[in-house]
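Structure tokens please, single chain.
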Amino acid sequence: MKQLVNIFDLDFTLIDSGHRFNKDSDYEKGLDFDYWIENNTFENVMKDKLMPLSKLFFEFNKTEVTNIAVTAREMFAADYEYLKRNGLHFHMVLHRGNSRELDHVIKEKKLNELFKTGKYIPFLAFDDKEENLEVF
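Here you go.
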């Protein structure tokens, strides 16, 4: 049986991690990866804050719908610990790994891989960027 899937972005959708972004770079043109990784310390990650949409995520987690994170982050141990500590329990987390492609390119590749398995049906998607929502 196929499972319905809700897709959640992390940064600026469920989590405010803005304090870890390079304020001098143009976020719309892409992430300053070196700055992000340099500031991805355990202490900085734990300063992230949940955004209001996280309340909806918690409600969806009470249902039978599969909830996945699809993020352009390169995920590290501290990121997973933050998710755990804050009750953001996903069925799976799809992330960029060490790729430097644009967010929407990464997300499209990851979602194509997921949905071509035939196990999942997209239901709802939440993201702060228009081009990522078009991918969904």
